[in-house]
Amino acid sequence: MSQAIELQKDETFVLNVGPQHPATHGVLRVKMTMDGEYIYNAETVLGYIHRMHEKMAENRTYPQYMPNMGRLDYLSAMAFNHGYALVVERACAIEVPERAEYIRVLTVELNRISSHLVWLGAYVLDLGGFTPLMYCFDDREQILDLLEAVTGSRLTYCYFRFGGLYNDIDDEFISGTRSFIKRMRKELKMYAKLVTGNIILMKRLKGHGMIDYDMCKRYGATGPVARGSGINYDVRKNEPYGVYDQFDFDIPVYDEGDSFARYMVRMDEIEQSLRIIEQALDKLPDGEVNPKKKPKMIKPPPGDYYAAVETARGNFGIRLVSDGTNKAYRLKLRSPTYSNMHLFDEACRGMLIADALAFMGSLDLVIPEMDR
Amino acid sequence: MSIEQKTRDALAPLFADQPPPEPPEPAGADESEKQAGPRPNGIIQQDYSARGFHLDVQIKSEQIVEAVKIMFELDYFLESITGVDWLKDDQLEVVYDFARYDFDLCRTVLRTRISRSEPSLPTITSVYTGASWHERETHDFFGIVFQGHPHLIPLLLPEDADFHPLLKDFKV
After folding, report:
1. C-beta atoms of A217 and B77 within 8 A
2. Looking at this predicted complex, what is its ipTM?
């Protein structure tokens, strides 16, 4: 892109944001038609790291495809593991032991917190505040250490198995998680003082990047983007899967629809995830983490199957079409930021470019998950 | 009235010229159907715990905009659009997934079959703006032309891509 700015007759010009730009957090390109400082039109260009995961699913057996899940959304890989495990378990009617279900919830929620912490640090960094990033990564490091000890990886987890888990958690994990909950509650108060109450942050976020119900519905926005627009939609509550119906937690919903509402939703979600983790630790049943009769060959009966989970960014859905062999006939991955980012083109029209980038950050983009 | 029934009633006029839909079938029923070839158009009630969705609606391809409008009015949101290549039937299937924001759980699947040689379908971007990327993606992967789409250029594939990787006769 040697020629980024090009003057046109009507005095608008095209400004190329990305594909490598710090504010896009990955390889995302937005072609913006600018009228001075204001955005006249924007067109998002995807596909820079498209890897055709859906075709890979057709060439691998079901267990072989599980590691791909960690490569979709590298920040919330556990929830993607969960989605894929759910759809295959549903198709093959595999029972999951209760202990495994609880550990699934534990790890997914820990992963959700670590994902929100990366978002918080990176987002405030976008807005010009460097310090919170260091605190966020310090807290996140605790989670990564905990999960590394059980899963064997720090980021691209492949921890779930059909009907169970790779291995059981130990006492060290439990005591480590308990002390993390205590620590995180203190840290949340610190973040509230350090970041949330900051007047510069409020002025940058409040009243900017408005998204309403109608726009969410037309674009299929889910996750914190929808919940920041007053939509009480969370797959964990609307369509409980696993053992999520066993826990007492709230879904934070804000009606304002601006960037600040989405910011608050994520901050409150960290607290709610801590509540879930605490309850899961208290209720953790004994037993095996894998079914007694492990399925030897995964061959779902022919037909269509669907499963959805709530990742850190919204509704992740998997549609599996099986033809009765040991490989999927067709596997569709419905990723949350794909729909969430799509509304950016429409919502950013008329915004100042600086506000638009603050708005883009509030959508919490993970590019590999959009491009798949 | 449950939302499931409401959706069925709203979609029923689409099948007015056909014999009335069969009574709800058990989930196992369409296994034999799949082997026997494409199923007839109509509404099938699926077992949610076994399938992950409630209503499975197959319509004619020219009815798609009409059907999607009904879904929009019933306050569904569009989750995704995708395709399935049924090489042995020489057909492409286009699948539209719908879900709801409220607590009336009813996942609905709209599907339609089109010929494999000249796959084309009317766009639904006039109803759901967010269908634009989903349709572009489906065009990339299957070569399905969405007539009336305002900007049908490659989205995920390179801009000069002349192949459709999810077709079953595409060799990796």
Report:
1. yes
2. 0.85
